[in-house]
Amino acid sequence: MSVTAQIPTCDLEDLQSTDPARVAAASSAIREGFGRYGLVYVKNHGVDAAALDRFYDSFRAFVALPEAAKAPYGRGDLWYQRGWTPPNTEVAVASGGQPDFKECFFVAPYDNDKDLEAQYPELYPPNVWPAETDAEFREGYIRLGRALHEAGLRLLEGAARALELPPSTFTGLLENGPHVTRVLNYLPLAEGQLDQGILWGEEHTDFNLLTLLPGGRFFDPAGVPAAAPDSKSGLFLRTRATAENPAGTLVRGAAPPGCITVQVGQQLEILTGGEFLATPHVITAPGTAGWTRLSSAHFMHLQSNQVLYPLGRFRTTTAMRNYGPPVLAGTYSIKTLVDIGLAPKAALEKLGYRHYDRLDTQRAETKD
Ligand SMILES: [Fe+2]
């Protein structure tokens, strides 16, 4: 399914170095990684692997609860931006209605800005913590989200420098964004579901700016952590199309030991006018029944009142045609959350004037 590709590794310590050669090596890894593959592996990222294992153990205790116990934390009213997302809820835009084979949990690792909370209540709701989870789950969750976020900020400063932009170009647009950390459980396939084309996650691109993936864990049918059961399952990423290879190449997203994977989302593609491309990715299910996989991701978003449009240097005629008209990041989020089945279609009605009925009411009054 995939070929081996030389996805570069960016060392965050190199990015912070005073040695110009180390900074240049890290910058070139970002340019090549984000420009050609849409992703880069990151070393010296500050995410504690042992703490991640403990966090996955505590999340397994939550997913093992009966559906009825988890149901109150499935918050459709919050467009599932906090708490539990039940199986068969989220749909990739490309999937033609086939929901992903997974259940998720969403937490914001930082406190919300109060103004943004009032302006976009579903994008900035308070966290939802199940009564059944312990302090270790909560603290481990927040710690993981913040470690990933900090690594993302350093990498984005490096990405700006790699593009010869001021270092805070991207990070300045992210402050108080609706960043969320997701942990998810890919569901076990029954014997009859094997080799039916069921995917754990249909191919898609992420709609945020940058996604950080600290690595998942497989569990065998007895629930014991184990290596992948076969070569069929896992994360595959599609590289940029070229004239010789218009479909791109599917690459297995297996970070080198000790590294995390960071991929470009739609917002970074738009800001750079396509210089960095959002990475299509798919999560394939194993060819063996009963296996599950836990995985997590931190999604960094533009602050919702920032304008999503190519930045000055990238505003070519083609980019303006491809990415116009400019929209607010919050509007873009609402539209996408409707597209992927998490927000109701009625959410779109809020994007225009919605008080036309007042005139109708007044005209009805004059008839009397
Ligand atoms: Fe994704």
Account of the 3D structure:
31% of the residues lie in helices and 19% in strands. With 368 residues, it is an alpha+beta fold. The chain has a single domain, classed as B-lactam Antibiotic, Isopenicillin N Synthase, Chain (Jelly Rolls). The longest helix has 28 residues. Bound molecules: fe (ii) ion. The site of fe (ii) ion has 3 residues, from loops.
CATH C-level class is: Mainly Beta
Q: Strand share of the residues? A: 15-25%
Average pLDDT works out at 91
Biggest sheet details: 10 strands, mixed
Question: What's the total number of strands?
Answer: 16
Bound molecules: fe (ii) ion
- Put simply, the count of helices is 11
Any guess at the CATH architecture?
Sandwich
Low-confidence stretches: none
Query: CATH superfamily name?
Result: B-lactam Antibiotic, Isopenicillin N Synthase, Chain
Topology order in helix (H) and strand (E) letters: EHHEHHEEHHHEEEEEEEEHEEEHEHH
Query: Which fold name fills CATH's third level, the topology?
Result: Jelly Rolls
Structural class: alpha+beta
Global outline:
globular
Radius of gyration: 21 Å
